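Table S5 (text form). Sequence records supplied for joint modeling of the two-component complex.
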Amino acid sequence: MLDFITRIFGRESSASKNVAKERLRLVLVHDRSSVSPQILQDLKADLIKVISSYMEIDEDALEVNFENSENQVALIANIPIKNVKRPANVV
Amino acid sequence: MGEVIVVTSGKGGVGKTTTTANLGTGLAQLGMKVALVDADIGLRNLDVVLGLENRIVYDITDVTGGHCRLRQALIKDKRYEGLFLLPAAQTKDKTSVNPDQMKELCADLRQEFDYVIIDCPAGIEQGFKNAIAGADRAVVVTTPEVSAVRDADRIVGLLEAAELRDPKLIVNRVRYKMVKAGDMMSIEDIIDILAIDLLGVVPEDEMVVITTNRGEAVVCDDHSRSGQAYRNIVRRITGQQVPLLSMEEDGLMSRIRRMIGFK
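The corresponding structure-token record, covering 354 residues in total, follows.
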């Protein structure tokens, strides 16, 4: 219904080219960041190394991905913690 | 010493072969000596677009493989002085030619011709690498669609990685009415995203289908907008400054003017 009204009162807001342009912009940010699976793998390995000296993490469940949200691309890391070391144990 | 230009796009079906045929024919019309090279091995098409499909004896792999001389494989287009085609092989695959052979082929061709225009296959694999290997300049063809522009962006990156800098863009199949209504990305939108120089804009035009059906190039059709667009692009390639076709000029008056040959 709302879509119908906006169509009557001016197409500008629903112009499909704006949708196309925005989708294209986001997908290109992702494409251009040119992060190959290998680099993502290396990044994961480094993250594990760094975090492991502070806490015990579930390496198999670790997820690192790029995500497109509203108007930006973010690096999202989900790192399940198994156990946190005592402060004295921190290397 | 001639110039080698590769026509590429990433995505298939955006008009690489049509563009190659029209640029070549247009340059030949200006009196240039032009060699068109079909680098799409296995999916030969430039021959049918040019209407030369019945005259093929040898193909590009015969030349690179040493089975014939370059001169024997070049088909002369009898309609235009100075226009030649080196057809692709239809029964082989893209690995039957390698980048070094393409470089050598381009070096030989540029001795004889003012322009060597290479029709690149779709994709970014071996065929693409072969097609760009011997080129001095690149023309990227796209259409105002998300998928085509995305692939064009990828191609621009790969061209730069291969040290083919400063590629020029042709936006094909633009529908001005849809652009006006906000339902198709405009030239400005596309340039804004790809950030490369514009070589020209070709409107969507039924005459392209009609001329291609006959094995002719629309660039020779004096009354069509797409023909005019290609003629402008051809002149820009030779270094002339030619203003863009205006979007507004699709009214009845301009159509009449074109019909009676004023434009």
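Note: Residues 42 and 50 of chain A are 12 Å apart (CA to CA).
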